[in-house]
Amino acid sequence: MNITLNNIDDLNAKISVNITAEDYEEKVEKTLSDYRKKASIPGFRPGKVPMGHIKRMYGKAVLVDEINKLISESLVNYIKDENLNVLGEPLPSEESENQEIDWDKQKDFEFTFDIGKTPEFEVKLSKREKITYYELQPEENLIEDTIKNYTYRNGHNESADEIVEADETIKGDLVQLNAENAPLEDGINREEALMSLHVMKDEDIKNTFKNKKIGDIIDFDLKKAYPNNTEIASLLDITKDEAEEIKGNFRFTIKEITKFVPGEINQELFDTIYGEGVVTSEAEFRTKIIDEIKNSFKPQSEYKFMLDAKSKLIEKIGLTLPDEFLKRWIVATNKEITKEQLEKDYELFSKDMQWQLIVDNLFRTNELKIEENDVLNFAKESTRQQFMQYGLSYIPEEQLEKYAMEIVSKPEERRKIMDKVAENKVLETVKEAVKIENKEVSLEEFKKLF
After folding, report:
1. What is the pTM assigned to this prediction?
2. Mean predicted confidence (pLDDT) in 280-284
């Protein structure tokens, strides 16, 4: 076998692969021999089918398969041995695609492949480059809302004698009424019905429950109070179809009133949220919440910094890519993409490719490394952020570790995490090399940046 490289220009080249009979004959014969041992053909005993018959049946397919394997392995090894930095994967050149091959008679074959080469460049960073780092500052209403959410998540229900705010939960008997506001004969009579005033939609009806006590009776339009058929079906213990037919007034006799009481801002609340003794005063609690909110904003700040660093470095370095080759490669590896989509999205793809090359360059030239701890810590932090979205700010370390280990054990997830860790390490290097201008902004101001 003979493989040669022909450079077209700085970004494009052709690889020619010349294959002779001695490169593949032995493998073809071995494969056909294995076929013969296993073949079950009517008229022949197992393993006794004549080799000529096997060749007529399978010879051409085995030859094509072995040559394809040989080409694939040879290209991979050649690119590796010659230290060729290529983009995408080799593609059959036009002459190879158009050549006619006589698989029955031909012994020697030549195949040509186009490759796209990685441009050579270096990244020089200095304090003359300026990039703004936007720090989101939590506004007072967000701080107060967060405190309120914590107290509500750690609240409890307690019995009451009177409805005060019309957001209580009440238990009692619900009786369907007729047009004269008398109990409907054979109508619905639901005992011990549990009704939440908090989710009641009609404010006027809700207000009629205010100041009512155990034993009081209220007539009201149930469908108007709860327009959602699912809520009515649950309340009356009927089907959704039956709930859709409900109309007119119902009479509710109050038997029990339960009021939700938010948790108090005290040491018990602090210990429940953060663990025993971590926070010991309301001032520390508030500071902790502000830090939490800022920390929850950090991924957004980092994302914005990444976008700005990406844009600045792409513009500064001005890489040229083998665009026509890459367009062919995208179409070859993404059968669903149309030419219109390709032209529309190629600029975005090109910038992503340039950024990846810049990241790889900085990672390599700065001799950065990814340790197992880096991968695990990234998975743990991602898991922590997910829990915080559901209001769970305190997760035991062993539980985080367990979730993180499950994530990094999945090859595809692990690869994504390693790519992100590499990018993060490069961005930290960029921060140290350029001049960072910190700027505090509100959430609304931050949104406008996009």
Report:
1. 0.70
2. 94
